[in-house]
């Protein structure tokens, strides 16, 4: 029992670490300026492969490669996942460095709602009434925010839909986080490296042009991509999925707070109203998930008694 309690604590702290680091990302990307968003994205892809390969080397986890190479369908799905996460990363970096941190946080707030919608449209899942209510409230929130921004919140929607698509693909692939990141980074590596070489040849690149400190920060972008993923993997093995689902809200809460309190982004009453609707939808969703877990726990002892 003591070992189980210790494992749960380790998992919880790893979950806090993963989502906390993801939530603090808006403080990191501006440090890489004057590099542009695509330049930063290419560096992130290159150095992510270096970082995750080093971690796999230390842990001697290479046995999965040969079986994977014999499965072209999974490789194709991983290539699609790489393209999807590249869109997500690129839009996120651009959004943060263009002064839209609050809107990027909105993308990760509404991501669970988009994921549920995908479950209905793609996986033909049936929703419970609270889930329908949450999705409806979320749609109303997007409408309110469209009026508040004077445009469709495309940054948030792109982040939400790209990450939900990425999650759907990863679910079909069924590969571990570090291994998946290694393959995805390897897929994008030649394109990213070729782009960095082209930037360097034309004098438009930032790598090595703004001092060692800037170059080191670009290289660190790979580490800060891989480390939270490792923490997330450790948490996913040790804590219930519902706990992990609640922890995921830490990242957009941090991002939203940074956008408002650190970067002083404007939040008119209409925007507050839109975000409030999103938060109501998430409360409805979380409450429903917790009720389901409690109901399952109440049924389990009964089933065990009957089986005994």
Outline, from the CA principal axes?
Answer: globular
Could you tell me how far the N terminus lies from the C terminus, measured between alpha carbons in angstroms?
A: 22 Å
| Overall pLDDT level | 86
What is the N-to-C succession of helices and strands? HHHHHHHHHHHH
Main pleated sheet: none
Report low-confidence residues grouped into runs of 5 or more.
302-308
Count of beta strands: 0
Radius of gyration: 21 Å
Strand content: under 5%
Helix-residue proportion: over 70%
Secondary-structure-based class equals: mainly alpha
How many H/I helical runs?
12
Description:
- The chain is an all-alpha fold.
- It has twelve helices and no strands.
- The chain has helices at residues 2-28, 37-59, 65-69, 72-97, 101-121, 129-149, 154-173, 177-201, 211-238, 241-247, 250-262, 269-307.
- The radius of gyration is 21 Å and the shape is globular.
Question: Helices and strands in order, then pairings?
Answer:
Blueprint: H1 2-28, H2 37-59, H3 65-69, H4 72-97, H5 101-121, H6 129-149, H7 154-173, H8 177-201, H9 211-238, H10 241-247, H11 250-262, H12 269-307
């Amino acid at each position: 029992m003591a070992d189980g309690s210790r494992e749960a604590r380790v998992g919880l702290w790893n979950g806090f670490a993963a989502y906390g680091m993801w939530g603090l990302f808006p403080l990191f990307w501006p440090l890489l300026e004057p590099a542009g968003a695509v330049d930063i994205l290419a560096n992130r892809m290159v150095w992510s492969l270096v970082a995750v390969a080093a971690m796999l080397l230390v842990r001697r986890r290479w046995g999965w490669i040969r079986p994977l190479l014999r499965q072209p369908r999974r490789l194709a799905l991983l290539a699609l996942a790489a393209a999807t996460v590249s869109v997500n990363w690129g839009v996120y970096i651009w959004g943060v460095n263009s002064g839209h941190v609050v809107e990027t946080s909105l993308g990760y707030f509404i991501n669970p709602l988009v994921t549920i919608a995908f479950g209905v449209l793609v996986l033909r899942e049936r929703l419970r009434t609270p889930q329908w209510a949450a999705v409806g409230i979320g749609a109303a929130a997007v409408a309110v925010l469209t009026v508040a921004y004077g445009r469709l919140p495309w940054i948030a929607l792109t982040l939400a839909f790209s990450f939900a698509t990425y999650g759907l693909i990863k679910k079909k692939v069924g590969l571990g986080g570090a291994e998946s990141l290694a393959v995805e980074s390897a897929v994008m590596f030649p394109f990213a490296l070729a782009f960095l070489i082209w930037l360097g040849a034309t004098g438009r690149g930032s790598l090595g042009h703004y001092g060692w400190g800037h170059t080191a920060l670009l290289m660190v972008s790979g580490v800060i991509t891989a480390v939270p993923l490792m923490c997330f993997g450790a948490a996913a093995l040790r804590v219930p999925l519902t706990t992990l689902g609640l922890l995921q809200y830490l990242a957009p809460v941090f991002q939203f707070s940074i956008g408002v309190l650190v970067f002083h982004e404007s939040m008119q009453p209409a925007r507050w109203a839109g975000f409030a609707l999103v938060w109501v939808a998430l409360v409805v969703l979380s409450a429903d998930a917790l009720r389901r877990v409690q109901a399952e726990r109440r049924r389990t002892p009964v089933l065990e008694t009957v089986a005994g």
